[in-house]
Amino acid sequence: MTRVDFMQGNIASAEGALAAGCRFFAGYPITPSSEVAEHMARRLPKVGGRFIQMEDEIASMAAVIGGAWTGVRSMTATSGPGFSLMMENIGYAAFTETPCVVVNIQRGGPSTGQPTLAAQGDMLQCRFGSHGDYSTIALAPSSVQEMFDLTVKSFNLADRFRAPAFLMADEIIGHLRERVEFPDTVECTPPRPIREGMLPFEPEEDLVPGFTPFGHGHRVHVTGLTHNEKGYPASTDPDLHERLVMRLIEKVERARHEIADYDIENPDAEVVFISYGVPTRSVRQALLDAPEGLYGHLNLRIVWPFPENLLKKFPNARVFLVPELNMGQMAREIVRHCDQPVISLPRLGGELHTPQYLLDRAEEYR
Amino acid sequence: MTVEDWFRHDRLPHIFCAGCGNGSIINSTLEAVDSLNWKVDETVFVSGIGCSSRAPGYIVTDSLHTTHGRALAFATGVKMANHDLNVVVFTGDGDLSAIGGNHFIHACRRNIDLTVICMNNQIYGMTGGQGSPCTPTGALSTTTPYGMDEPAFDLCDLATAAGANFVSRWTSYHVRELTRSIKLGLQKPGLSFIEVMVQCPTNYGRRNRLRDVEAMVSKMRDHALLKEKYDRLVAERKPIPEGSFVVGTLTDRNLPALGVRR
What we know:
The complex is a heterodimer of chains A (366) and B (262). Chain A is an alpha/beta fold. In chain A, 33% of the residues lie in helices and 22% in strands. Chain A has helices at residues 9-19, 34-43, 57-68, 80-95, 125-128, 144-161, 171-175, 238-253, 279-289, 329-335, 355-364, and strands at residues 3-8, 24-27, 50-53, 74-78, 100-108, 114-118, 137-139, 164-170, 177-182, 221-223, 262-265, 271-276, 295-300, 302-304, 319-324, 342-346. In chain A, strand 12 (271-276), helix 9 (279-289) and strand 13 form a beta-alpha-beta unit. By secondary structure, chain B is an alpha/beta fold. Chain B has one domain (3-221): Rossmann fold (3-Layer(aba) Sandwich). Chain B has eight helices and eight strands, in the order αββαβααβαβαβαβαβ. The longest helix of chain B is centred in the first third of the chain and has 14 residues, at 22-35. In chain B, helix 1 (22-35) crosses helix 6. At the A-B interface, helix 3, helix 4 and strand 10 of A face strand 2, helix 2 and helix 4 of B. Chain B: This is 2-oxoglutarate synthase.
């Protein structure tokens, strides 16, 4: 039997983490994400887990990676300035193939910016923010229910691909209060254990190595240096480095069609909105307010790896309109994958596009 | 088991320079671990970046070679997620007290049940001999070509002030004393901090008229002042010999600790 509650997005995310079996949380207070940490601090000790408030976000990300290597599902939550501080260790997580979840309740930036107001300004940072090449998984919730559901999903994706997964929410969804349905159990797919005879960083067919958590006799050496399949440093071998980095990107990118999570409305439309996260709510209202079937809509719940094939689901599309709470970060990505004009509809400052604004812009392209 | 069994033999030979003292510190550590009958598969070595931080790569346990300065934060995560693992951190003076200074004082404040072994060579060895927060005033390095004009940290004072349960200092010369001290640290609930003064002939010695390894080690030995002797000199109001540093157990207490195995 499902339980129904009325709660805030940040707390729904924490509840999603607990339902997914997260038993270690390390974090540092930052508006507008702190309720995630506060809820984990209250709840984790009651379910046999552990919470620690670290001295900064650099340490938080480090501790989460340390926790993850003991085989415990581990998470942190932060916002812009903290996310920037986490970048070096996020690259470490990507390179050492550490499954972990980072919740980012995005706020207005750059710098301290607008601590209490929403933005989607970290969408490229979560993909490219750490130095070097790698690929990541990012999810974008547009409701409190999705804060719960997509947090659970973040853990499963992080474990499946042995990569950090990012729940890229924003202040509005984080602080929004809505009805949530909690299922009795959620799907939890732990990382695939290493197979007998395989090396700790030797990939299986899907390019993901079996996991070797600490304390289980694997005697694994984990390093942020370029390493061979044994996990040993081999940082001056050009071919090995190239193979490793390409595999880390490919293991995520090759699954982008299969793991795509999205909604499509009016696929025959000529003018199509593409959105993710909170602007999806404005687009949905705009479509309700417009004559039926006039405008199309693609809502993305997984933003990275970017499922470019979905653009083909709108065969009559003449133009894509992309409302975002940034200066067109994902619009840049969409431009790379289609021939039609892509119109970025940026909104900065913390407020949403109104449905009427979206309809007025759409009207210009009819 | 013997000490030999704790090494990851297929990773040898190591990358340390001829004359480096890090190897004897690793030896002392493994000797201490082995004498306590610790299990390989219940022990994790964690490190940051630098010469000292290469140590876990030569040990056969699970090990985590992390980012510069952050070893203690990673180790905190390992220990908090699983109290049953024995966690030992290798670090150096630059890794621990410059880029990692904040994590150092907070790990001590939490008194988290880790053993931290700092190989203090008073220099950034891995990157070619730049000055560190532990480079003595006046010493030459590639970034202090006219002599270090800042005072050095006393890492043991820092650890004690911040709340660590066990704090000691020895040198790479004092192999037996060091091994005994590490053993005490490993057994102590809470944070144990063991500073080991170690020679770096390549990047410290050759710029500071200590080109010869033996000269460097002799200088450390001659300037190491036993804690007991230091206390006596203070009590008798006698002068402390210039250039000396105190060795021995400096702090040993039982403040409440975090992450202790039940």
